[in-house]
Amino acid sequence: MRTSPGARVGQYVALLAYLLFLAFPFLWLISTAFKPPQELGNLHPTWIPQDPTLANFRQAFDEQPLLRAALNSLLAATGAAVIAVLIATPMAYVMARHRTRLARAATGWVVVSQAFPFVLVIIPLFLVLKNLRLINSVPGLVMVYVVWALPFALWMLVGYVRAVPAELEEAAAVDGAGRLRTLVSVTAPLLAPGIVATALFAFITAWNEFFFALVLLKTPEKQTLPVILTHFIGAEGVADLGPLAAAAFLATLPSLIVFAVIQRRITGGMLAGAVKS
Amino acid sequence: MTLVSEAERPVRRAPGGKGQRRVTDHGAWFLVLPALIPILILSVGPLLYGILLAFTDAQSGRTQPTQWIGALNFRDLLQDTLFWESFRIGLVWAVGVTVPQFLLALGLALLLNQDLRLRWLARALAIVPWAMPEVVVGIMWRLVYNPDAGILNETLRDLGLGDGRDWLSGIGTALPAVIVVGVWAGMPQTTVALLAGLQNTPRELHEAAAIDGAGAWRRFRTVTWPALRPVALAITALNFIWNFNAFALVYVLTSGGPGGRTRLPMLFAYEEAFRYGQFGYAAAMGCVMVAVISILLAVFLVGRLKGGDDA
């Protein structure tokens, strides 16, 4: 199809506007992170720091236990991702291959769970975890994250399972492979890329999560990065901008890197799930 | 669902077919249980427990046993003007974010579906807000909105549009300011979903319509939109729910201020539960939120689905 030159120019202008809108806050964050205090006090801030410095990063690590928080985040996100995928993959397989009442109920849960206001779930969870002495503990948070990441993990994995031709399993069965054997040596290897993508996605969601962590983790040495980041903002809303920006920038890097790796698969997985269901 | 019959065939054909059917069912349970148990204990259970809590006077740190108080919490809620004000703000926020989010994302998705240079860069950038922790998004925009060191006021000063203002603590500007952030943060998912939908629209139909002399707008309305509609409805409904239940962004940006102008229902309920310890009352708020949102969504979806070709 041909597009007139005028329309093409319009399209590029629009695309440029979108790019600016999407990129400028992040660029400003980076710019602020590298500015020395006197420049941040300046009434006419500039895009490029005139006197770039790493002092903000040093100060950020001095002010808040960032390393400890990063370790907690890493533990919570890795634990949640690994467990979520381990338990979601078999269930997704059943949901994709069998049309039982159970599979339909599970699909219903995946949809309905998107509509819960978290506050309705968090109060009972808080009480239950308190009785189990799992408040203010990373393992307790992992349990919550696993269930919280499950709906989307199931959604993605069901799409990936459906993309594996059932004929292959059939062929393996004809060759005399048992059910478990078929799953392990035929289906699982074909699913592996999808499983990895799902795990990484669960990792990012858990790494970024704030609300549950805020409610469930009470002391700074247990808190995850997003919660610690809010400590940079004082009670009156006043913040030391430089260290705040530096810490926020560092906290974003892992999710950005992981997301860059799986970007294509995420969109593919969403597409598969959306089309086939 | 051809897949189902295909999946069952190998079982029947497998050697020693006796009793295989039952084995399959047991196998299915075995595969489902590891996920089912956590779901029941940590999702379905708490949800039901939460609904029950709404009918009690549960409070944090109280020594007396919790008692059933029937619908008293709900009767109190009806009188609670602060809650309904917060609810109204929540609706303004949810609609104010969801609608521009959809329109902007649709525009971006249509552009990304074209053969433009720099499309790879735009695709990568369009995803960035999605990958960021919400807390960081909030912090980032606080830096943008900062009255002195922020780029927004500086740009306004450069353009000679006045001295700018303190966006996040102004009574009139706080809610619009956080809505802009909400739109920015939620655009990626919407764009990706719509882009996926666009790639399913039949290309040949598009070309046929173009040959017949249909302009861009006609082609969009008669070819693209009908194919895109199911995806558009689904993602809009989801966005509305997600936005209505939003918490972290506004918590970081304004904590509900100034004077409660941006106190979304989730922030209100959070404070009620975990600052004042009113578990039962906060659970009742959660129930009301679910109920109202379900009704609104049902009305929206039924209206849209019946809306026919014009919608």
Automatic annotation (TrEMBL), chain A:
Q: Which GO terms describe its biological process?
A: transmembrane transport
Name by which UniProt lists this protein: Sugar ABC transporter permease
Which species is this UniProt entry from? Answer: Streptomyces spinoverrucosus
Domain ABC transmembrane type-1, chain residue ranges per copy: 70-262
Q: Which residues cross the membrane?
A: 12-34, 74-96, 108-129, 141-161, 182-207, 244-262
One Pfam entry for this protein is: BPD_transp_1
**PANTHER family per UniProt:** INNER MEMBRANE ABC TRANSPORTER PERMEASE PROTEIN YCJP, MALTOSE TRANSPORT SYSTEM PERMEASE-RELATED
Q: Which UniProt keywords apply?
A: Cell membrane, Membrane, Transmembrane, Transmembrane helix, Transport
Where it sits in the cell: the answer is: Cell membrane
Where it mainly occurs, coarsely classed, is membrane
Q: Entry's InterPro entries?
A: BP-dep_ABC_trans_perm, MetI-like, MetI-like_sf
| Cellular component terms per the entry's GO annotation | plasma membrane
> What is the top-level taxon of the source organism?
Bacteria
Write out the similarity annotation.
Belongs to the binding-protein-dependent transport system permease family.
**Gene3D superfamilies noted in UniProt:** MetI-like (1.10.3720.10)
Question: According to its record, how does it sit in the membrane?
Answer: Multi-pass membrane protein
Give the SUPFAM superfamilies listed for this entry.
MetI-like
Automatic annotation (TrEMBL), chain B:
Q: Where in the cell is it found?
A: Cell membrane
Q: What keyword terms does UniProt attach to this protein?
A: Cell membrane, Membrane, Transmembrane, Transmembrane helix, Transport
Give the transmembrane ranges: 28-55, 91-112, 124-144, 167-187, 227-253, 279-302
Q: Does the keyword Amino-acid biosynthesis apply?
A: no
Which residue stretches does the UniProt record annotate as biased composition, category Basic and acidic residues? Answer: 1-11
Q: What is its main location?
A: membrane
- Region entry Disordered, spans: 1-22
Provide one Gene Ontology cellular component. Answer: plasma membrane
Name the Pfam families on file.
BPD_transp_1
Per the record, the similarity remark reads: Belongs to the binding-protein-dependent transport system permease family.
Instruction: Please give the InterPro entries that the UniProt record associates with this protein.
Output: ABC_transporter_permease, MetI-like, MetI-like_sf
**Organism per entry:** Streptomyces spinoverrucosus
Gene3D superfamilies linked to this entry: MetI-like (1.10.3720.10)
Q: Which residues form the ABC transmembrane type-1 domain?
A: 87-300
Tagged with keyword tRNA-binding: no
Q: What is this protein called?
A: Transporter integral membrane protein
Q: Its membrane topology, per UniProt?
A: Multi-pass membrane protein
**What is one GO biological process annotated to this record?**
transmembrane transport
Q: Which domain of life is it from?
A: Bacteria
